[in-house]
Amino acid sequence: MAEPLWTSEEIIQSAGGRGSGASFVATGVSIDTRTLEPGDLFVALAGERDGHDFIAQAQGKGASGVLVSQTTAGEAIQVEDTLAALERLGVAARERAPQARRGAVTGSVGKTSLTQAIAGGLALAGPSHNSVKSYNNHIGVPLTLARMPRRTQRAIFEVGMNHPGEITPLTRMIAPHAVAITNVGIAHIENFAEGERGIARAKAEIFEGLTEGGVAVLNADDRWFDTLKADAMRAGARIRTFGAAESADARLLGFEVGQGATVRARLDGRELSFPLRQTGAHWGVMSLAALLMLDALDAPLDKSLEALEAFEPLEGRGATRTVRLPGGGAFTLVDESYNANPVSVASALKTLGSRPAKGRRIVALTDMLELGAETRNLHAGLAEPIEAAGVDLVFAAGPLMKSLFDALPPTRRGGYADDAAGLAPRLVQAIEPGDVVMVKGSRDSHAKALVEALAALESATGEAR
Predict the structure, then answer these.
(1) Residues in a beta bridge with 216
(2) Phi then psi for 123, rounded to 5 degrees?
(3) Contact 311, 414 (CB under 8 A)
(4) Closest alpha carbon to 311 in 252, 259, 260
């Protein structure tokens, strides 16, 4: 039987409201009936799809009780506002586990992968807790907190934003002992009047929740490093730095790609060399950010290195597979389809250029979104990192990526379509044995559809079709 997480009496005391029906014990917290497990507390959140419409389904799937804002039959706790109640439940979970060292990660690129890499090290060090998927917004953060077991020793949370002011309430909710900012880049820039400077200021909001004497892990190579460092110091943080810069506490000395990769680094004057399964060029410095965060959360170095060595690329964030072709032979598929902005695409292209390839290096790109007035120039500007990476063919989908396609020399133009669905057949037809094919784009421009079309060249049983 799963360990009890909340009793109905604790929920009432922490979140407020009044109970009806019998007392109950919850072993988890859910906001989605599709992933609800028996024993979960189901929180009916309002939104485009009102969670109250799914109460009967949640109860039918075995929810131990429901948190609602309207009268409901069965084991229920009624509150005025279910999201506010979830936030209070999250804060209560934090306060009942005072022994837990908490960390938080934000940044324009790489925050989910870094969070999960840190989570691997924490899990090896003792009872731990972490964000799942990209649960990093005004719902995901309190939900992750509310799921934190009371015996947790270490926890790591991902914090995201699309607008100024969104990180502040989340970091104050977490009250982290250590925070990391991966980098600052052009993501969601259309929502920031100050442009990239506004994004940097918004990322710096994460310092506002730091506990006294907390650690700020910062990218010494980032162009906004001095700004972030000054903001962190005003918050009373102890600064720890990573990067290739000579002054970095965790300094990257080398990153060599083979079947996986090998990192050479100097950590507080001590030289290290360790393997990774990640081959992304950014993982040289990201692995060092993970080590600094794990150290700040009191995880032993040997466990941290062990976790990094075992950490696999995440789906949509560099996951790689070999796909057999119907006529014989195979190609390598690199799935970078989760999201995209100019910084992450440039980094992914650099990695593609460093990958060994028996055939051609091919990239399929869909539109990058939320880039504001300069969006077409930013798309066209990808021609430069494509050239530097030695990419052989570019396939592009979407009206914004047309700007890039037009900027390419004819020899690099693999194919263009108005959308991913239209591009997929042309891309699939072009693949040859030995090719390395990377797919990247914003979620809402449906880059994932291209990954699925390429993967479909091989059936789930391994028989070509």
Answers:
(1) 179, 239
(2) -65, -35
(3) no
(4) 260
Q: Give which of 397, 384, 378 is closest to 441, Cα–Cα.
A: 397
Contacts of 127 (CB under 8 A, 6+ apart): 149, 151, 152, 153, 154
Mean per-residue pLDDT of the chain: 93
Q: Whole-angstrom Cα distance, residue 379 to residue 364?
A: 13
Tokens 């914090």 — which residue?
A: 159
Amino acid at 297: L
CA dist list (Å): 217 to 105, 178, 212: 9, 7, 15
Q: What is the pLDDT of residues 183-235, one digit of tens each?
A: 997 665 566 656 788 899 999 999 999 999 999 999 999 999 999 999 999 99
pLDDT tens track for 138-184: 999 999 999 999 999 999 999 998 788 999 999 999 999 999 999 99
pLDDT tens, residue by residue, 255-267: 988 778 999 999 9
Q: What are phi and psi of 297, to 5 degrees?
A: -100, 15
pTM of the shown model: 0.85
Of residues 70, 38, 40, the one with CA closest to residue 53? 70
DSSP of 419-445 = SHHHHHHHHHHH--TT-EEEEE--GGG
Amino acid occupying residue 320: T
Q: Are 247 and 239 in contact (CB under 8 A)?
A: no
